[in-house]
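User: For my dataset I need records formatted as: sequence, then structure tokens, nothing else. Please produce one.
Assistant:
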Amino acid sequence: MRSVQTWQLRAQFAAGLSAMYGAEVPAYHTLVEVSSAVNRGVVAADGDAVRLGSLDRVTAERHGAIRVGTPDELAAVADLFSAFGMYPVGFYDLREAASPVPVVSTAFRPIDPEELARNPFRVFTSMLATADRRFFSDDLRARVTAFLATRELFDPALLATARRIAADGGCPRAEADEFVAAAVGAFALSREPVDRAWYDELSAVSSVAADIAGVRSTHINHLTPRVLDIDALQHGMTARGITMIDRIQGPPRTDGAQVLLRQTSFRALAEPRRLRLADGSVVDGTLRVRFGEVEQRGVALTPEGRRRYDTVMADPDPAAVWDQHFPRTHAELAASGLAYYHGGDPTRPVVYEDFLPASAAGIFRSNLDSDSPAAGGDDDTSYSQDWMAGRIGHHLHDPYDLYEKVACS
């Protein structure tokens, strides 16, 4: 008998990950506290702020981020998340950002408006682009591939259960708690000693590469609350003594309608890890990998709106030219066909549910102590949305198609 539906499993999964991540990264609790305080203040001062989501939804909202090494590992993630009603949406190539990172990514999330309203949990999932010779020499690629072939991120029994739950649309209560606990545990930070020399060699290519292929498991890299005023959040965290990254990623601050996604984070923390040295001895050390991200979401832009956005962001000073390309009000955005609104009603904006590759890469790179630039040359790989869909055996939904359906519903 199906007594727990997929959205309830998703809410339980998100809550479980939040509790686990908070225990691993205590500064996350501060981020949640400040975000909640900012949200209450914004809604108290401006009742129209809830047009982009109720206070309850925004306060409960999270997105997570994980990293894997191979298409097979990404396929396993897709199977696992399908049990929670989370499907791959979009294709993001962070290698092409101004601050390139050697990964290609998708985001797993609900795609139905009612499911998003019940619990909009998302997980941005990146896969190491080992085929790209601009980052990986033939020798290093062979050794990374061999290392990744020896690990198993998820218990096959867990994946089998996930596929069955996805097909059934839920599971009995007696099974739900055990399944969710196992799924959450699969993303816990491993206490297994890390090979220091191997980790350092990969770090010379990219700290993200080391975080993926330098360890024998995956883990939650960050868990992100949503805030209604990210500038107030940045100031609030700084006042708490938390070091934030230097610049908020995404659109510039404006007094007009908020669009797409703005993101910031506290700097990656030095976390205690056990390290295995070349002589086989194991010592206490630290690795600086995980950070605390927070986001402010605005209205979803149409393809024309996105083209304008990309033009603005290519300018040396986007804030100075923003008003030349974007009107200030939701009514003007709707009339210009630049953003999506439910039934065309400018008082009912369609919230942007996805991600910006330049912002994601900027967050990744701004949290790294150092990273080597990619070597010169052309990209001769086959990474693409169609390639990823074929390799993981799941359709990658087009974000614009989803926004069109929501706007027309």
